[in-house]
Design brief:
The protein is of the alpha/beta class and 178 residues long. It has five helices and seven strands. Helices cover 35% and strands 20% of the residues.
């Protein structure tokens, strides 16, 4: 039923003549150009990450679900196309937050099975999603935050084309000098 509603919403959006970039903004409560809402999130290993402490770094903020097919496709590409090229940079941080409220053990199982060997966070009972978008309208959600804490990119869903667009913005943002 939920899938049917989401399909209907997407069809309505397309019929209204919205461009792909406009569709990618559906459901966000944040806007490109605004300061990112600060958040504190728990990593699976128990450490806490406070985004205020990440100021001065480019952040790729990815909201994903352990049982979301598009999310898992995107996560695999994040490893290959983001983590590998940027993992040694002091001025970059990948923050992937599982937001389908799965138990820590379930998320760890998915991460192990798929070989995600980077820090993963989870909401752990908090409503972090509510700071950025309406939970009901789908995953994955990807944002790029510049060194000053401003949102420079945000999109929902996963397609190869959208991911490639995100990579271009990420490269440009990381290469920018303050």
């Amino acid at each position: 039923m939920m899938r049917m509603k989401l399909t209907w919403i997407c069809c309505l959006i397309v019929s209204m003549g919205w461009a792909q970039s406009e569709m990618a903004q559906v459901g966000f409560t944040t806007k490109i150009g605004q300061q990112m809402p600060d958040l504190t999130v728990e990593l699976l290993d128990g450490r806490m990450i406070d985004t205020k402490e990440l100021r001065g770094k480019v952040i790729l903020l990815d909201f994903w679900g352990a049982k979301c097919g598009g999310c898992l496709l995107e996560m695999k590409r994040l490893v290959k196309n983001v983590l590998v090229p940027y993992e040694d940079r002091e001025d970059f941080f990948l923050l992937a937050i599982e937001v389908q409220n799965h138990k820590k053990e379930e998320i760890e199982g998915v991460a192990k099975r798929l070989g995600f060997q980077f820090p993963l966070a989870y909401e752990n009972g908090k409503d972090i999603v509510g700071l950025y978008f309406q939970r009901v309208l789908g995953l994955p959600r990807t944002l790029i935050i510049d060194r000053k804490g401003k949102i420079v990119y945000q999109a929902f869903g996963y397609t190869d084309e959208e991911f490639d667009d995100m990579l271009k913005v990420l490269r440009r943002t990381v290469d920018e000098k303050e």
